[in-house]
Specification:
This protein is mainly β. 7% of the residues lie in helices and 44% in strands. It has helices at residues 4-16, 20-31; strands spanning 34-37, 48-57, 60-68, 85-93, 98-106, 114-126, 129-138, 145-152, 160-161, 187-191, 194-199, 204-208, 221-223, 228-237, 240-248, 253-260, 268-274, 286-290, 293-300, 316-322.
C-alpha cells in the first residue's frame, strides 16, 4: 500500500482547515495506525466486528463496523444483552488487500442524550462533510432505540453529534412489530439533490432527508417487502434502485433484496442474495462498487478470539465479490472462507 501515514495526514490537513481539535485527534489516530493484509474471510481477525458499512471517498474504501466486545456472563445473557457494542471502528484500503486500522471513530457516549448500546450504522459524504447515521439507545425523554447523526470533516473523524437529539425517535414512528426497538439500522442513499433515509426492525421505514442531511423532510413511509427483518441497505446502479435487507430464513437471517425504478417504488422482490451466515443468527449487508468491482460486506460468527468462539454477539465481518446479470439482478453470493 502507498504511504498510509501520508494519506491520513493529507486527509487531516484537508479536513481540519487549521482547527486544533480536529488536528490533535487525527494526529493521535495517526500515531496508533496499524495495517494488516486480507487473507480470506473473516476480514478482521483481531476483534469481533459486525454490521459492516462501506463508503468510497477519494479513491479509498472506508469500512465502518460495530465492535462486538466479550464480557463475562455474555454466553448466558438473554433479552438483547447478548450484544455489547460500545464503539464503532473504521478500516480503510486502496486495493482491498492491505487495510489500515483507524481504531474507534465514534461511541454512543458521544451522544449526550443516549444511554448506551451501539448498533448498525452507515457513513455518507456530501459536500466535503461526512455524516454518521447510527443506532443508539435513547435516554429520557427519548424512549427505546433511536437514529442519531454525527458529522465530521474527515472520514476517520472525530465525529460529533450534529443536532443534540435523535434524528428519529420512537414517538415519530408506528410501533409496528417491534415496538420500542424498531428504529434501528439506518442506511442513506444520496441521489442527486435528494437524500433518503431507510431503517427499521420488523417495519421498513423510508423518509426523505432535508437538504442539510440533519432532518426528516415530509412523511415517513413504510416499504412492504417480503420477510423483512432489519439491516436495510440502499444503493443505485444504472438507474435502478436496490433495497437489500436481512430477511427471515429457515432458522436465522438471510439477505434478500428488492428493486425499483425510483425511490417512490414500486419495489419488486428479487429473492435471496445469500443464505444464512455461518454460526450467526443475524446478517447485515453493505454493498459498494470500488475500483471497477462490486462487493458485498456482511458478517458471520466464525472467528475465535482469545478462547472465545463466535456467537450471536461475537461476530466477524466478511467480504465477497458481487456480480450483476444483464437484467440488473444481483447474482446469488456464495459466502467464502
Amino acid at each position: 500500500m502507498r504511504n498510509s501515514a501520508f494519506i491520513i495526514m493529507a486527509l487531516a490537513l484537508t479536513a481540519c482547515g487549521g482547527g486544533n481539535k480536529q488536528t490533535a485527534a487525527t494526529e493521535e489516530q495517526q500515531d496508533s495506525v496499524k495495517t494488516f493484509v486480507f487473507n480470506g474471510n473473516p476480514l478482521v481477525r483481531d476483534k469481533f466486528t459486525a454490521d459492516p458499512a462501506p463508503m468510497v471517498y477519494d479513491g479509498r474504501l472506508y469500512l465502518y463496523v460495530g465492535h462486538d466486545e466479550f464480557y463475562e456472563g455474555q454466553d448466558t445473557a438473554s433479552g438483547g444483552k447478548e450484544f455489547n457494542i460500545t464503539e464503532w471502528l473504521c478500516y480503510s484500503t486502496d486495493d482491498m488487500k492491505t487495510w489500515t486500522d483507524h481504531g474507534s471513530v465514534l461511541k454512543p457516549t458521544d451522544f449526550k442524550w443516549a444511554v448506551g448500546e451501539a448498533w448498525a450504522s452507515q457513513v455518507v459524504e456530501k459536500d466535503g462533510k461526512f455524516y454518521y447515521y447510527t443506532t443508539v439507545q435513547g435516554g429520557e425523554p427519548y424512549v427505546g432505540k433511536c437514529v442519531g447523526v454525527a458529522v465530521s470533516d474527515s472520514p476517520i473523524g472525530p465525529f460529533v453529534d450534529a443536532i443534540g437529539k435523535p434524528l428519529v425517535s420512537d414517538d415519530m414512528t408506528d410501533n409496528g412489530k417491534r415496538g420500542w426497538w424498531n428504529d434501528i439500522d439506518p442506511t442513506v442513499l444520496i441521489d442527486g439533490d435528494d437524500a433518503w433515509l431507510c431503517w427499521g426492525n420488523g417495519t421498513c421505514f423510508l423518509a426523505k432527508l432535508t437538504p442539510d442531511m440533519l432532518g426528516i423532510d415530509g412523511e415517513i413511509k413504510v416499504v412492504d417487502v417480503p420477510n423483512y427483518v432489519e439491516g436495510p441497505w440502499l444503493h443505485k446502479r444504472n438507474g435502478l434502485y436496490y433495497l437489500t435487507y436481512a430477511s427471515f430464513g429457515k432458522g436465522s437471517e438471510t439477505i434478500s433484496y428488492a428493486t425499483a425504478p425510483s425511490m417512490a417504488g414500486p419495489w419488486t422482490p428479487q429473492g435471496e442474495l445469500t443464505g444464512e451466515a455461518e454460526n450467526s443468527f443475524t446478517i447485515h449487508p453493505g454493498i459498494i462498487e470500488f475500483n471497477g468491482q462490486s462487493y458485498l460486506f456482511y458478517h458471520n460468527a466464525t472467528l475465535e478470539l482469545d478462547g472465545h468462539k463466535g456467537a450471536i454477539g461475537r461476530r466477524s465481518v466478511c467480504v465477497d465479490s458481487l456480480f450483476y446479470n444483464d437484467f440488473g439482478k444481483m447474482n446469488y453470493v456464495n459466502q467464502t472462507k
